[in-house]
Amino acid sequence: MPIRFLCQVLHVSLRRLYQWLKIGKCCDAFRKYYRVDGCFCIWLGSLSKVCQALGLRNWGAVATVPLFDILTRAGLKAAAAGIQAQQLQHKSHVAAKLSLPSKERKFHRLSEVDQILGWGKESSQNPVGGQVPFLLHVGPSKAFVSKGFIPFGGSQETIAEYLGVSSRTVRRHLIGVDRRQIVQAKAAYRKIEQAMRWDADFYRAEPSIWVKCVENAPWGTYALHEPNGVSSASRPGGTEVTSDRFFEYMDKTWIYRCNLYDLDYNLNSMQRSRRNFIREANRSQTSEPGVGSSLL
């Protein structure tokens, strides 16, 4: 791609473009680069060397996003938060499926995100055609589910941890994204909340549902042990909760779960994205030798 056109598309100066290339060279993203006939020739580096240079355990979320969607500073940050949220949401959905014992996977099918977000009517405990299993009601900001629902989704705290920002920043970047927070009700939650408020070290509300105080944790932090919805599986070690996670509504005690985001990014792996980029660049170079940049 011609350098002048590249600077116009990215809205940066030639000096800033060289600065980006220099940074990429320092983290081994490029083996070398040089300018010839008004174009850049760039030799891409190894993905493993980039991770080693930057101290990364993994690449995180990777997606294909149109360039005009991220040209602005706000657009780039919003896309990064949305892509990470969608990846964590997808991983949580897959993990919820894998948590089911093999015999139970044939009978319990997890609901999809678009089914929940697109359903505004009440659903019964024994769903019939067209209804979402264990979904009671979808409001403007919450999705109310019964005890049989197998929870999944992504939290703003987890997204912020992956991006290295605060949860308030993630909330700001995801403004405008349609989302619902899963809230779940169980009869045992009322007794558990009362036990937590009375600072009980251990309390068993039902044979399969109990809480235990977590050692070396902030005051009031408990590990909630319970089955994953209608399945017989449970999360190893329980889920860390505080009394603030519970609230009263319609004579029931509910617990705040994760968020579900209405996102449709084209997720991909970094290695596959790199291969596609090289293939498209080589194809462009073959069709227009004087315009494309060389990527070897």
Question: What characteristics describe this protein?
Answer:
single chain, 296 residues, alpha+beta, 2 domains, 22% strand, elongated, disordered C terminus
Give the SSE layout.
Layout (H helix, E strand, L loop, with lengths): L2 H8 L3 H13 L3 E7 L2 E6 L2 H8 L7 E3 L8 H27 L13 H5 L17 E4 L3 E4 L10 H8 L3 H7 L5 E7 L2 H10 L4 E5 L2 E5 L8 E4 L13 E3 L4 E4 L2 E10 L4 E3 L1 H18 L9
Parallel strand pairs: 5-6
Antiparallel strand pairs: 1-2, 3-13, 4-5, 6-12, 7-8, 8-9, 9-10, 11-12
Question: What does the model show?
Answer:
With 296 residues, the chain is an alpha+beta fold. It folds into two domains: 76 residues, no CATH class; 188 residues, no CATH class. Strands 4-5-6-12-11 form a five-stranded mixed β-sheet. Strand 7 and strand 8 form a beta hairpin. Helix 6 crosses helix 7. The longest helix has 27 residues. The chain is elongated. The relative contact order is 0.14. The C terminus is likely disordered.
What is the rounded Rg? 24 Å
Total helical segments = 9
Distance separating the two termini: 15 Å
Oligomer: single chain
Number of domains: 2
- What structural category do the secondary elements indicate? alpha+beta
Largest sheet features: 5 strands, mixed
Percent range of helical residues: 25-40%
Strand order of the largest sheet: 4-5-6-12-11
Average of pLDDT = 83
Overall, the morphology is elongated
Give the low-pLDDT segments.
121-129, 289-296
Q: Please write the string of helix (H) and strand (E) elements.
A: HHEEHEHHEEHHEHEEEEEEEH
Give me the count of strands. Answer: 13
Strand content: 15-25%
